[in-house]
Specification:
By secondary structure, this protein is mainly alpha-helical. It is built from 34 helices and 7 strands.
Length: about 750
């Protein structure tokens, strides 16, 4: 019987449950019966054991057949599931890359058709860089024409040929790392053998735009789980191109180089915050996050302000306990490491030490150290601790920022505060720089046409729907967390809690904060609108969002899971079809529409400068025009169109005085103090007509100089001197004593600043 039991142990579990009890009873009965002889009992047991052992083997074979088939079925299902995931991943990546490449090709063709770029001479091509952005390209040319890359880089770091009377580090002051890296790659790859330098430059920018679009695609795909959302994101991005990018008319601008890296950073942050990723994927996202944060800080002077807003979003996530503490600590390390490296690579830039981003990080770290039990206790206690946490963070951050500014004075800090006071109506000023910045389109509130375009493209209505659902679900999650309820580690579709996904909560705060800034400053729409397209596409393609809505409605007529899957497929399909039908012909028509951009007066001016003006001449004029002069001639100038540098803005104010009501002697003293040899007067500024009278250059100068008289609510300009830009054209003394006209056409008048004053009456 012992042999029988050992054989039965090897049988299947089902047989064991059915047969083990009878065999045990039989064994006990046999042992209790002592009438049988020992020898006969052993023989009988051996025979029975052999017979029953054969039966057991047969039963084992029969029982193993269904288990083997179930294993085969599980292996087949796993293999098919893996193949489906790999197929979805392959086609999704293929679609993302295809969207990026096609967008870059489209922008290249559109740029060529808009400016007839390939048909123009080199000078005319350079003039097409609008918005005062062309002077960046000059440094790229300089690095290529230098005897060696090292020599060219040294000349930029010790530059005395850009601003008159100053020796500057142009790489630091103008954030020229894009030009440095692009020129280095061009030299290293031998690009001069197969492509012109200007095509390599704009190709690099358009390539970054492809990365920009691809990152938005991936971000929407990661959040929704379907690459259809990425396709819809790209479609809305292209349709709303006037509000998503400035690359089609001002290629060298810093934000065209920087925002693609920010898009990659946001996509990496989205993946890092997600709960359902592997450790390897999380590490990849973290490394991408760290690298792109550093590059973003390196190439754009305003990047730390953008990251400060992003830091506020993450601070709210951490305060409401919506993201694990470990991940927030890792993000803080990435931020601090990127700031430290950027500080070193930007030649110890003090603006980074006094940035609000660093102050926020310091405040958050210290407050967390002193409030280690902030996320414990009942609801009321946690709310009180939360308010105390906010107070500690912002108080510590403001104190740190104040101490840094006292130890390392930063010139633009007080100016930014003054600008914001005037912007929000808390103060008034006659300062020319503050008023001219307020008159810039980027710093004004967006017009109604911006929201009308978003509505016509169907973005805004669906955006408001998605934002409302995600915001309400996030608020529910915040209430549950403050009440002490844990987050579900693995959310299911039928749970209907889209706000419990950390990446969704982050993007809710992201779009709210950047959207609030976009309502105040029109220039912020180029940061906000792309993520509006991405966030909206994610929402309409996400079954979790529709499931959250259906769970709130408590729909019982049809299964909510089925209906949410249907809606997440049908709604984007209908939107995509309507966009294809209405906007695809328009987008293609832009490529066939022949446009004309020709500025013969500027071409004539630059040609005269290159042929007639001395190589060491210094030119004064408006910053936008001087950027073009610097690009096309390489001559030194008195100012450049860089609004982040307060010193350059002060020099621009002095150059603008040629349009004020001041004497010839005053203008002469100003120009000679800047070591200007020539001054360029533009007809477009002299005879400027604007519906907004208070934003004309002449009006702003009159206000700053005190040449304004108010009578019955009307503003009039009055001075004992005529307006210089008008009077000098009369060619009479004393203007001819100080200045001599050497060139003029319909748009420009160039006057030489006399080195020897000739008093002729």
């Amino acid at each position: 019987m012992t042999e029988l039991r050992s054989r039965k142990t090897d049988s299947s579990e089902g047989d064991k449950e059915e047969d083990e009890t009878p065999k045990e009873l039989e064994l006990e009965t046999t042992r209790a019966d002592g009438s049988a002889s020992v020898g006969g009992e052993r023989e009988r047991q051996q025979k029975e054991g052999e017979g029953k052992g054969d039966d057991a083997l047969q039963e084992r074979g029969q029982s193993n057949r269904p288990s083997e088939s179930s294993v085969k079925r599980s292996k087949c299902s796993f293999a098919s599931g893996l193949l489906q995931r790999l197929a979805r991943l392959f086609f999704g990546c293929l679609a993302a890359v295809a969207c990026g490449v096609l967008y870059a090709i489209y922008m290249s063709l559109y740029h060529d058709r808009k400016f007839w770029f390939s048909m123009r001479q080199e000078l005319e091509r350079e003039i097409t860089f609008q918005g005062g952005s062309g002077f960046y390209y000059y440094y790229y040319k300089h690095l290529l024409t230098a005897p060696s890359f090292e020599r060219g880089l040294y000349e930029l770091m010790v530059d005395n040929r850009t601003l008159s009377g100053q020796t500057i580090n142009a790489v630091e002051r103008f954030s020229l790392y894009p030009e440095v890296i692009t020129s280095f790659v061009y030299r290293l790859t031998g690009g001069q053998d197969f492509v012109e330098p200007i095509y390599f430059y704009i190709g690099a920018v358009f390539g970054l735009q492809a990365i920009y679009v691809t990152a938005l695609f991936v971000c929407s795909w990661v959040m929704s789980g379907t690459w259809v959302a990425g396709m819809l994101t790209v479609s809305w991005y292209v349709i709303n191109r006037p509000d998503t990018t400035k690359v089609d008319y001002a290629i060298p601008l810093r934000d065209n180089w920087a925002l693609p890296y920010f898009s990659c950073q946001v996509a990496a942050l989205t993946g890092f915050l997600s709960n359902n990723i592997s450790s390897a994927t999380e590490m990849c996202c973290y490394l991408t996050l760290s690298a792109t944060t550093f590059i973003f800080l390196l190439v754009w002077e305003y990047s730390h302000y953008v990251l400060f807003v992003q830091g506020l979003c993450l601070f709210l996530l951490d305060s409401f306990d919506l993201v694990p503490v470990r991940k927030m600590a890792d993000i803080h390390k990435a931020y601090l490491g990127a700031l430290f490296l950027a500080y070193l690579f930007q030649f110890q830039n003090p603006a980074l030490l006094s940035s609000p981003l660093l102050s926020l990080l310091i405040g958050s770290v210290l407050a967390r150290y002193f409030q280690q039990k902030m996320k414990m206790g009942p609801l009321l206690a946690r709310v009180m601790k939360l308010f105390l946490h906010f107070y500690l963070v912002f108080t510590t951050g403001i104190t740190f920022n104040y101490l840094v500014k006292k130890l390392m004075p930063v010139s633009e800090s007080d100016f930014i505060l003054k600008f914001l006071e005037v912007k929000f109506g808390l103060n008034t000023t006659t300062d020319f720089i503050t008023n001219i910045l307020l008159c810039q389109e980027s710093f004004q509130t967006p017009g109604q046409d911006f929201f009308l375009r978003l509505t016509q493209a169907s973005v805004l209505p669906f955006y408001l729907l998605v934002l409302t659902v995600c915001l309400l679900s996030t608020l529910q999650t915040i209430y549950r967390r403050l009440s002490g309820q844990p987050l579900k580690p693995n959310l299911r579709l039928e749970d209907g809690r889209i706000g419990e996904q950390p990446e969704v909560s982050y993007h809710v705060f992201h779009t709210l904060l950047f959207g609030g800034l976009a309502l105040l400053f029109d220039g912020m729409k180029f940061i906000w609108t792309p993520y509006v397209c991405m966030f909206t596409a994610f929402g309409v393609c996400s079954p979790e969002l529709w499931m959250t809505v259906l769970k709130w409605l408590k729909l019982k007529s049809i299964h909510p899971v089925v209906l949410s899957l249907i809606l997440s497929t049908a709604v984007p399909t209908i939107i995509g079809f309507s966009l294809w039908r209405e906007y695809c012909p328009r987008v293609l028509a832009e490529l066939s529409d022949v446009q004309e951009f020709y500025d013969p007066d500027t071409v004539e001016l630059i040609s005269w400068i290159n042929s007639q003006a001395p190589g060491a001449a210094v030119f004064a004029g408006s910053p936008q025009l001087l950027g073009t002069v610097k690009l096309c001639s390489g001559s030194a100038v008195t100012s450049l169109p860089l609004y982040s540098d307060i010193n350059l803005l002060r020099r621009s104010e002095d150059s603008y005085q040629v349009y004020s009501m001041r004497s010839a002697e005053d203008i002469y003293k100003i120009l000679t103090s800047q070591r200007a040899n020539y001054v360029i007067i533009e007809e477009s500024i002299s005879n400027e007509l604007s519906l907004n009278k208070g934003c004309r250059i002449k009006d702003l100068l009159d206000i700053a100089n005190g040449h304004v008289v108010y009578d019955k609510g009307e503003m009039y300009s009055f001075s004992k001197h005529g307006r210089f830009c008008h009077e000098i054209k009369m060619n009479y003394s004393p203007y001819t004593n100080y200045f001599t006209r050497v060139f003029w056409n319909r748009s420009y008048h160039v006057y030489k600043v006399n080195s020897v004053i000739s008093f002729q009456y």
